[in-house]
Amino acid sequence: MVYRFSIGAFRYQFNGLKDLLAKASPARSGDCLAGVAAETYAERVAARMCLAEVPLTRFLEELLIPYEEDEVTRLIIDTHDKQAFSEISHLTVGDFRDWLLIDSTDFVILKRVAAGITPEMAAAVCKLMRNQDLILVAKKCQVITAFRDTIGLPGRLSVRLQPNHPTDDVRGIAASILDGLLYGSGDAVIGINPSSDSLLAMRDLYYLVDEIIQRYDIPTQSCILTHVTNQIQLIEKNIPVDLVFQSIAGTEKANKHFGIDLSLLHEARSAALSLNRGTVGNNVMYFETGQGSALSADANFGIDQQTCEARAYAVARHFSPLLTNTVVGFIGPEYLYDGKQLIRAGLEDHLCGKLLGVPLGCDVCYTNHAEIDQDDVDTLMTLLAAAGVTFIMGVPGADDIMLNYQSTSFHDALYLRKVMGLGVAPEFEQWLKRVNIMNDQGEIQPVEPAHPLLQGIPEHLLTFKTPNEKA
Amino acid sequence: MRKPDKPILSRDPWQQLKRFTRARIALGRAGSSLPTRELLDFTLSHAMARDAVHLALNETALAQELEEQGFSTQLVHSKAFDRMSYLLRPDYGRQLNEQSRRQLQAIKPVIPSGAVNLVIVVGDGLSSLAIERHAKPLLIEIKKNIPEQWKLGPVVIASQARVALADEIGELLAADIVAILIGERPGLRSPDSLSIYITYAPRVGCSDADRNCISNICSEGLSYVTAAKKLLWLAKEAIRRKLSGVALKDEGGLQEIAVIDQHRKLL
């Protein structure tokens, strides 16, 4: 269908919903690279005005990728909840924005309609929103999940402890884990990006984190961010796997590029559930996403990158994850060029995820060839904390020495908790108080050299020799 | 007289863990924030990485230094006319501009029959600093060890280059093997890290799966000797088996030869 809109004497034409959505998107380098962005400022606004008049029902009729050609489209359509949708089915995209903003639309209602919102509807309404709208509406959403602690309760901000090491040295990783725990981080997950593809090296890391969690009785979970097939193999060998990780994207072709499809994710989730390792809940999946991943796999089908990203959340939602992480600035300046684009994308992703009912956290991050620095990181993480983001990353000193990019730190999490008055997951908070890392006022305390976490460092971590050291 | 003040901040009592990792641990806290010293240290590292990305490679100076070492050189430029277009349009960095293309077309390499034609490209990539520091000594090490019957073409110095630019260059110069020495995306701890990507029978349209990569060549990473050895081992194997890329890596048995993995975090 062709969409037409006139402003005075100017007539604008958009070739289908896909084109309309792309042209309505706030400017970003990835959409320019894909050749789908609006060519003028006025065209962009015309697209938004036109989009505002499109009924939400239209998104169920005009599919961005044909049903027959894409299993993500099939998932979106086949799992669409008509009952939940009935509450908003009479709205246009413009009305939807107003409806989301009015005070009577609260978290109970948002939760009720979440299964009726498709990712395209969520992406569309974002394009009509200013940053403050993205924050305000996201703040209203509540998405609560659990494994060994409870994630996403109001007034809480969790942290993924990310203790990466360039050679997966277990002592180096253990040192970063202890550093994070002593700063009160790690309630979302202790999640390691391994540099090696070796199953043996990964097995060592699972045992390492499991040992730390058990020895200190920490209410948190571990994850090794390797390909899902590796994790299934390790589960079959009875390795202590808590959460199963996978990068996902919003089209079948992009997922294929990651070496996955929906049935493989089903298989992985069943495998993780079979270990039955959760104590207060059984959300066993951890997903990562990021705007630009579909385009970089040549699998965007002319869809703008924010809409592709929202479709990834439909994939995530289907598997009831504990955590989903938009790695917002990782992929490079050809997708998000500068701080302004980064901030916008982070807020959009967060809202889209939350509207769909996905526990969205954000790796607020950048690479050194982007026009982004730590001040931009400060701005985005503060805005996200205001919006009620589920979790952020905790990387020692914000400097990931394995992935060579900058993210947020344990210090950053402490800053956000202090300025925004946020707590950690309740079970983890009890633990921090029990081991005297946090005082009764919820402040992180200095620890003594005799602290059990420092005294009880497993002996083998300190004596284990790596191949590097022998040489 | 005033007594000397107690330091405002105290050190984290887990300093001993620093010997296990170069991660920024045990930084201490000013309240909940970074102490000034750590803040400035981080800022300096970022500044160096930024300079590595944005300072232009002095290609004529490099060409002269290489000529002095007995290499013949050829300067080329990608379709990315400046750094901004390079960063925003990765596709431009993978193609030669018209003038460079014509220049390479004009070179008619004479390859003795049975000889292997090896072409080496030096590309700025995302770190001109890496090229400035490591390209010359690495090239000298490679040249020393090239088998006698192989022919080394001109060293092509490419500005605003991405990895795949080597495919077009290699194809134009009828290379059996093309190897590109290119500046990696700079990290805070290694603004000057260099990688080598090797492609057998290069031609426009080769994919990342057709290449082998030797990464992390820098003062704290892989040495020139080891890097040169790995490169020539891979090149010989590629010639012998008439392929490069994933298939070569699988049976190669050499450690630290990683396949290209730009989005490791987004596996």
UniProtKB/TrEMBL annotation, chain A:
One of its GO terms (cellular component) is ethanolamine degradation polyhedral organelle. The keyword Lyase applies. One of its GO terms (biological process) is amino acid metabolic process. Pathway: Amine and polyamine degradation; ethanolamine degradation. Pfam families: EutB (PF06751). Keywords: Bacterial microcompartment, Cobalamin, Cobalt, Lyase. Adenosylcob(III)alamin binds at P194, Q246, S296, M402. The keyword Lyase applies. Its EC number is 4.3.1.7. Substrate binds at R160, L161, Q162, N193, E288, D363. Binds between the large and small subunits. It catalyses: ethanolamine = acetaldehyde + NH4(+). It is found in: Bacterial microcompartment. Its cofactor is adenosylcob(III)alamin. PANTHER family: ETHANOLAMINE AMMONIA-LYASE HEAVY CHAIN (PTHR39329), ETHANOLAMINE AMMONIA-LYASE LARGE SUBUNIT (PTHR39329:SF1). Catalyzes the deamination of various vicinal amino-alcohols to oxo compounds. Allows this organism to utilize ethanolamine as the sole source of nitrogen and carbon in the presence of vitamin B12. Belongs to the EutB family. NCBIfam families: PRK15067.1. This is Ethanolamine ammonia-lyase large subunit. It comes from Nitrosomonas communis.
From TrEMBL, chain B:
Its cofactor is adenosylcob(III)alamin. It is found in: Bacterial microcompartment. The keyword Manganese does not apply. Keywords: Bacterial microcompartment, Cobalamin, Cobalt, Lyase. GO terms for biological process: amino acid metabolic process; ethanolamine catabolic process. Its EC number is 4.3.1.7. The keyword Lyase applies. Pathway: Amine and polyamine degradation; ethanolamine degradation. Catalyzes the deamination of various vicinal amino-alcohols to oxo compounds. Allows this organism to utilize ethanolamine as the sole source of nitrogen and carbon in the presence of external vitamin B12. Belongs to the EutC family. The basic unit is a heterodimer which dimerizes to form tetramers. The heterotetramers trimerize; 6 large subunits form a core ring with 6 small subunits projecting outwards. HAMAP family: EutC. This is Ethanolamine ammonia-lyase small subunit. It comes from Nitrosomonas communis. The gene is eutC.
